[in-house]
Design a protein that fits this description.
With about 80 residues, this protein is mainly β. Helix content is about 5%, strand content about 50%. It is built from one helix and five strands. The protein has a five-stranded mixed barrel with strand order 1-2-3-5-4. A hairpin with a 6-residue loop joins β4 and β5. The chain is globular. The chain starts with 6 loop residues before the first helix and ends with a strand.
């Protein structure tokens, strides 16, 4: 889980790939619901996904924010 205590150390050391359902929130970011009960904010200016899409998002993870934030490097559609 991205909210596990070990993630405080691990998040900044790796590039992460998270996947789930998209909820659009504004023109530069959206929420990703991975089904675990933790919602991730994805910063992705210029993204082309819509609410309800299933995607994988690769990027850098910041767990010091609420909700945890993934800054997108790549989005892969899974529909």
């Amino acid at each position: 889980s991205v909210v596990a205590s070990i993630m405080t150390t691990a998040a900044g050391k790796y590039t992460w790939v998270l996947w789930g359902k998209v909820t659009v929130i504004d023109s530069g970011s959206f929420f990703l619901d991975d089904g675990s009960g933790v919602t991730i904010k994805v910063v992705a200016p210029g993204y082309t996904v819509v609410g309800g899409d299933t995607v994988s998002v690769k990027g850098t993870l910041d767990v010091s924010t609420t909700p945890p934030t993934l800054t997108r490097q790549e989005i892969i559609m899974r529909n």
